[in-house]
Every structure is written in structure tokens, then in C-alpha cells.
Write a structure and sequence with these properties.
431 residues; Rossmann fold; alpha/beta; six-stranded parallel beta sheet
Amino acid sequence: MKTINSQAWHSVSKNHQEQLQKTVSYNTHKEMLGSMPLEAPRKLTFVTLFPLAENVHLVKDVGMIPCLMAREHGFDSTLVCFSREEEMPYLLDEVKPLKVHTISRNRGYQIYRWPAIGAVRYLLRNSRSIDVLHLFHFSRETMIHSLIYKILNPGGAVYIKLDYGYTDHITPLRNVLFRVKQSVFGPLRNVFFRLVPTLMTIETSAAYDHFLEFYPAAKPRLKIMANGIDREWLDGHGFREKLKVKKNIVLTVGRIGTYQKNSEMLLSVISNMDVKDWSFVFVGPVEPVFQEKVNVLLEQRPELRSHIIFTGNIEKRIELYEWYARAKVFCITSRFEGFSLAMVDALYFGCYMLTTPVNGAEDLTAHASVGSIIKSESELIIELSRIINGELDVNAKTKQILEHAKRFCWSTICSDLASWLRPAMKRPGNS
């Protein structure tokens, strides 16, 4: 910085002295600022509040949404739950850079479904610093969490991911009770939807239409957003290359033999077919009653022993995905489903889909263009026979299936989510 000697200083007028002092002071301040490191803008905070989250939830929507919002969209993401970090090994690899904040567990939480004391305490202490509060399902708990947050942080965003598994499989009694409940609480819920959430997402187009039938006030804030797979993680483990080696395998995954999964339909179809060189692989824990039915079938048709494979429960994801990579066909015979993550996995691996008309079947099969929606055992026999006899070339469908699967990648899904959320956020640092 230049200096002024005393002789020159006294030779100028008083007004000029004051002007020079201001100029010198400004330049000094400017130089000081230039030498100081600039502070990075604060990251927007994304908090997922899901008290019951465990390790397995990290690779589902509970963990993947905040993970992708941090990994690809610059948020500072935290999952708030009862579990501790050491109980969640997936944090080390699958969901970096997601963080976990542990809250205290209280008795009776799962019985009474009132908000956990630890969750309420967390919101009271931290709501003002949360930019997006991410909640699941529409329940009394979600309403209370949302209201606490919005009272303390009116400018914050509430995002509710609805698990609204609309299905035609509903008993008349349940339907009557549902409609009575709607007549009592529907108006109050519509007020809530109009005033509190910034954004809500629902998993299928059928569920979207059914939800708005009862809650029209939700329409301005409601979007369709499916569940997905972490394509980056799968590609990083070389599964894209493994798709080139497919075998004549029909794969089904789930709790084998439960009422919901309706596994006996597939077993009955197998018993009435010539399976030729095809194998049927059942992945998941097997109900004892169903195992007895399998034993009876194998006694009657011992030649099927080499064609029916039971793996039991597979906990290692890579081992599970090896089966998807080998299979040409994925079969789901459930009586009802939420949004099936197994079907999403099957799409990534290029499996042709055979499914009953469960929730999401239309969306996941692109309206039966990358799979078949079957409504009865006889229809399943027809479709499987066409595949086994070569009348339906599932290999020719692979490219179309893989293209459709891009819709169900978490990266694509969370890009949409970020674009929906950012316009509603007014905090500094938002771009």
C-alpha cells in the first residue's frame, strides 16, 4: 500500500485530506479481504426422519433418497433413527456420504404409533437448521412431525413420500371401514394437504388417481415418483457385463409360500408343464406348509428335482444379484403388493416380467410391453409355454427392457426430486 509523507499531507486542503483518508481506508480493507479465504456457502440440509430404519433400509428408498441427494445434488443429508452407525455396515460402502443421527428409543412406540420422544426432541432442537424434512407414509406421526417442523421453521420444506399401495385386492369389510374413516377424517386431511406439505410423491399412476379421488386438495403438491435401484453401485460391481450371459431360468424372489406371494400358483403351473431345459429358482425363506407341497410334487414328478431350485434367504446383495443376472424371466404371482423393489431389480438385469396385476405392474411393464400381466393360472401356463417353446423370444426384448429400466434408477428419480424441491426453498445457498 502507498504511503503519504507529512509534508505532502499538510499541503493539501482539509477536504482533500478527508477524501484521501477514506480512499486509503477502503483500499486497506479491500486488500485485507482479498487475503482472507472465502467462506464456502452453507450446504442445504436434507433430513430423513424414519425412526425404525435398520441396515437393510439403507439400500431402499429410506437410505437411497438422502444418499443421492447428497452424492449428486450437494445436500448435507442425515438419516434420523433408533439404530446406531455401527449397526449399519452399508454406511461404509453403499450409501456414502449419508450420515446417521441416533435418537433415543422409547417403549410402546410401535404399539401406539405416537411420535417417538427422541424424534420430537430432535425436531425441537434442530428444525430451524433443516432445509428439507423428509418423512414417510401418511399417518398421525407424520402429521405431528410436519406441524412441529413448520411451526418452528415456516420457510422449510416438508417432503412426504407416500407408501400408498392401492390394490383391487381388498375385502368388502375393509372397503366399508376405509370409506367410513374417510368420511370422518377426509376433510381434515384435505386441509392438512393444502397447507403443510411442500411436496408429496406417490409410487404409481394407479395410486395417484386413487389418492386424489379422496384427497383432491393434494393435487398441486402431488407427484408420481417410483422406487429405484442404485445403478452406479451395480455398474461398479460389474453387473452390466454379466447380463451378456443369460440362462434359461425363471426367477422369483420373496417370502416363498406366504398368502401374499401366492407361490402355489407358480408351483402348480410347473407341475402341469413340460419345462424342457428351463429351471425355476425360488429365492427367499420358505414357509413349511409350502415346502410340504413341493415335496409332494417331487415325489410325483421326480424328474423336476433338477429343475426346481430353492436357495433359501440370501442376505448378501451381490449373491442375490448374481441370480438376477443369470435369469431370463422374472415371475411374480402375488395376490397384492406395494411397489415391488424386486421387480425394479429385475428390470435393471433385463429380465422379462411375468406378473399378476399388482400395484405398479402397469408402470413396471410399460403397460405390458416389456412383460406380461397375467390374471390366472391358465394365463401363466400359456405365457410360460410360449417362452419355453421359443414362440416368445425374451432375448429380443432385452434392449427395450434395459431402456425402460432407466426410468427406475435412483439417479434419475432424485434428479426429478431435486428439481421439484429447489424452487420451494428460499434459504441462502440455494441454486
